Amino acid sequence: MRFDPVSLASGAAIAALGALLLFDSAGTVDVSLGWMAVALTGAVGAILVLSGLLGRNGRHD
Amino acid sequence: MSATAGPTPLLRDPRRGLVAGVLAGLARRTGIDAVLLRVAFVVVAVATGGLALLAYLIVWAALPAAEGGSAPLTRFGRVARSPGGWRVAIGAALLTLSALLAFRELGIWWSDALVWPVVLAAFGAALLWGRWQRGGVGEAEADALPGSEAAHPRPSPDAGHAVSRVAEQYSGIFGVLLVIGAALLFLSSNHILGGLRDAALTGVVVVVAVALILAPFLWRLGRNLAAERAERIRSQERAQLAAHLHDSVLQTLTLMQKRAGDPREVSALARRQERELRDWLAGGGDREGAASLASALRSAADAIEDDHRVAIELVIVGDSELDAAAEAVLGAAREALLNAAKHAPDSGPIRAYAELGPAGIELFVRDRGSGFDPAGVAPDRRGVRESIVGRMDRAGGRAEIRSGPDSGTEVGLFIERDPGSRDGSE
Description:
The complex is a heterodimer. Chain A has a domain at 32-61. Helix content of chain A is 74%, strand content 0%. Chain A contains two helices and no strands. Chain A has helices at 5-26, 33-55. The two termini of chain A are 19 Å apart. In chain B, strands 1-2-3-5-4 form a five-stranded mixed beta sheet.
């Protein structure tokens, strides 16, 4: 099985977003819409940057 | 301080710096003490509510380091232009947006009416700056001219390059739109747009009128540029054609003059040149590293012609991948051609005809030599028995040999293919 860092990072980011939503629903933390936008744009941006940088090495293009 | 203002370029000096070396580099460039600059920077940062920090970041991104290497912004630009770079660019934009939103949530914020227009304008200016630095504005304009694409076909027509080309062409337009949008957003947010509406309308009318006046001239200018580019490309193609003819045809003609005393060699040279020229005209190019049966057959025929100084007329219809069945046919055909070259060298050209297709392969090799009796071949002669008949049998095909005294020899090779099992071994 080939190690794919982009998939791993993407999965981790999505899992973190899911955990954030879960904690918000459970009332453990109170995440406002503004902070959710911060988390969402940050996660998507990080995934795209990582994917683009590794794709340059021919692993994903 | 030894460094003084003069020809020294402004560079970051991370070795002497506390953070990223921007102020240290500025001190080296201006000759002002770095400590003084740092104190002044802290004062300005506090006075502007942190705006100077943003300026620091921008200068850091734009300046190369004194040790060498390019500026972070330049490196990012190179990454963004590479294949897959659009993901890096959009990702970086999203990360920037995320950071801005975080600052906003934290209260480190100036005003929506200021920050968002500035961010939009910065992105637009970055796009325009990158486009201008690559010198691509003129190229993009020329590409947009009528007929220019047909006159300037570009290499590498794969999807990735096509996407990059589209992104390249539209990044400048997108940058302009971003800057205009930022300006309109700023004016609208600060309630200035209403007062400027009449003036803006006047400006638009003037611009449209000027555009209408200049349109014929601009159109003709564009057409002239496209025609000039097309002529330049035609001239390059003529030069390439002349170079190819010089390297191939003229060299062969010279060789033929030198070997005029050997008609067989002259004939072989002429035929080889003819085939090469036909291949080149058909866009086949060189046959080095043949990957198909047709090109492998041509290479084999060429080699036998050269080695044995015989003429081989090879006609091929279709083509086929060089799988196990094709390898068997190739080996058997090579043996048949070789036999004809060895045993009928002076009986006129050897003729070979091949039909190559996905359903099967048929190939005939015929010479007008003295012929032989296939049944009378000695058991220890393995050329026909093993290299042709046996080889075809093992690959699931068959070989038919028709020969007789003074009637020449014809070798027929046949193999049918099952589309579902092309990997049969010989």
